[in-house]
Design brief:
This protein is of the alpha/beta class and about 375 residues long. Helix content is about 45%, strand content about 15%.
C-alpha cells in the first residue's frame, strides 16, 4: 500500500472548515493509503487521535512562532522519508515545508489552493483595499510581494495543484502555473441538519422574530458592515426581522460598535463562533441566509446552508456562480450593492413560492457535492 503525508495548518479539536476537511480527507484516504497527518495544534496531545484510522503528529502552537515553524519543517522532513506522496492543504505554512521536504526526499508533491494568501494578508493588514480579482492585476510590494512569489514558486513546482472551483483554477493559472497541473475537485458537503422545528430552534438560541442569518470569519471582505447598515431599511419591510451574524475575527469590535451606534442591539446579534451542531440549530431557526462576500473561492458554507433548507442570497463573486443558478436555487447580487441586496431579501421574503423554489433547488444542488465524489477525484489526482 502506498503512503501519503498530509501537511496542514489546522485540525480538530480546532474548529473550522479546513480542520473538518482535513479530518474527512485523511479518513477517506486511509482506505487507499497509509496516511500520516502533521498539523499545528492548540493541543499537544488529544485523546481522540487514538481512535483515528491514521497517524496524527501535532506541533504545539504555543511554541514561539519561528521555532514552531522550524520544528514543523524538521518533522515533515523526517516523516517524508517513508512516504510516497506529500499533500499540503495550504500554500504557505504547510505547503513550503512540504515542498522543501519533497525535493530533499525526492517525493511527489501536491498542494490544495483555496485562495490567494497574499491578498488575504494584505487586506487584514490594510495594505490593500482591492478585491481579489483586481489584486491579481496589481503590483505587489514588500512582504505581500514576497508571499505572492512564495505562492507562485510553490504551485509552479508542485506535481499537481488541487483547487475547489474553476474560478480558483483561473487565478492559479494567472500565477504562471500550467493548465495540465491544475485539477478542479469541488468541496464536499457533510452537514447534519438540526432536527428542531423552527420554533424550537428559536427558543433554543433565545432569539425570536424572522431571522436573517450570515456566517463567516469577521473580516472586511465578508461584507457584514453592509448587512448591519441596511437593517433599518429591512425593518421597514418587516419589523420582526432580526440579523444574526455567526463568526469571530478582527472586525468584531468594529461591528459591535456599529450595532451600538445605530442602536440596533435588539435587532442585530453577533453571537461569535459556533460548533457545527450549534450552527445547524441557528440555520433551523432562520428564514433567509445572506452572504454578502467580496471573495469566495468555493463556498462550503453555502452548500451546508442549502442542505439545511434555508434560501440563499449571495454575491456574484468567485466560485459562487458555480453553485448558484440565478432565480432557481438562490439570488446573486453584486458585492455591497445596497439597493439590490435589500430588493433580493425583500423578494425572497415576500414571495413564498420563490422561497420554496430556492429551498428545493438548494437541496438538489447540495446533493451533487458528495464526500465520496470529492474523495474519488482527489485519489485519482494523487495516484497520477
Amino acid at each position: 500500500m502506498r503512503s501519503i503525508l498530509i501537511t496542514t495548518g489546522i485540525f480538530p479539536p480546532d474548529i473550522g472548515g479546513p480542520a473538518s476537511y482535513g479530518k474527512i480527507l485523511a479518513e477517506k484516504l486511509s482506505k487507499d493509503f497509509r496516511v500520516t497527518l502533521i498539523t499545528y495544534s492548540s493541543k499537544l496531545n488529544w485523546a481522540e487521535d487514538k481512535k483515528l484510522s491514521f497517524k496524527v503528529v501535532r506541533v504545539w502552537r504555543k511554541i514561539p512562532k519561528f521555532l514552531r515553524h522550524l520544528v514543523y519543517f524538521f518533522q515533515v522532513v523526517s516523516l517524508a522519508k517513508k512516504q510516497d506522496v506529500i499533500f499540503a492543504l495550504n500554500s504557505v505554512s504547510a505547503g513550503v515545508p512540504g515542498l522543501l521536504a519533497a525535493k530533499m526526499r525526492k517525493k511527489k508533491f501536491f498542494v490544495k489552493v483555496v485562495g490567494d494568501y497574499a491578498w488575504e494578508i494584505a487586506v487584514n493588514k490594510r495594505k490593500t483595499s482591492l478585491l481579489m480579482n483586481d489584486f491579481q492585476k496589481s503590483k505587489r510590494k514588500g512582504w505581500i510581494g514576497v508571499l505572492h512569489k512564495i505562492q507562485s514558486w510553490l504551485t509552479k513546482n508542485a506535481d499537481g495543484v488541487i483547487v475547489p472551483s474553476e474560478y480558483l483554477g483561473r487565478v492559479v493559472r494567472g500565477w504562471g502555473v500550467s493548465q495540465n497541473k491544475i485539477h478542479v475537485v469541488y468541496n464536499q458537503v457533510e452537514f447534519k441538519k438540526s432536527e428542531l422545528t423552527k420554533e424550537e430552534a428559536r427558543k433554543k438560541i433565545d432569539i425570536s422574530g424572522n431571522i436573517i442569518v450570515s456566517i463567516g470569519r469577521l473580516v472586511p471582505w465578508k461584507g457584514f458592515r453592509m448587512l448591519i447598515k441596511i437593517m433599518p431599511e429591512l425593518l421597514k419591510i418587516n419589523q420582526f426581522f432580526r440579523l444574526v451574524i455567526i463568526g469571530d475575527g478582527p472586525e468584531k469590535s468594529n461591528l459591535d460598535s456599529m450595532v451600538k451606534n445605530m442602536r440596533l442591539e435588539k435587532k442585530v446579534y453577533i453571537v461569535g463562533r459556533k460548533s457545527q451542531s450549534e450552527v445547524a440549530d441557528y440555520l433551523a431557526a432562520s428564514d433567509i441566509f445572506v452572504l454578502n462576500t467580496g471573495y469566495e473561492g468555493f463556498s462550503h458554507l453555502i452548500l451546508e446552508v442549502m442542505t439545511a433548507g434555508v434560501p440563499v442570497v449571495t454575491t456574484t463573486v468567485g466560485g459562487n456562480k458555480e453553485i448558484i443558478h440565478q432565480g432557481e436555487n438562490g439570488f446573486m447580487v453584486k458585492y455591497n450593492d445596497e439597493f439590490n441586496l435589500i430588493e433580493a431579501i425583500k423578494t425572497v421574503w415576500q414571495v413564498p413560492e420563490m422561497r420554496q423554489r430556492f429551498i428545493d433547488g438548494g437541496l438538489k444542488a447540495s446533493g451533487l457535492f458528495s464526500v465520496d465524489s470529492m474523495f474519488q477525484e482527489t485519489v485519482k489526482v494523487l495516484k497520477s
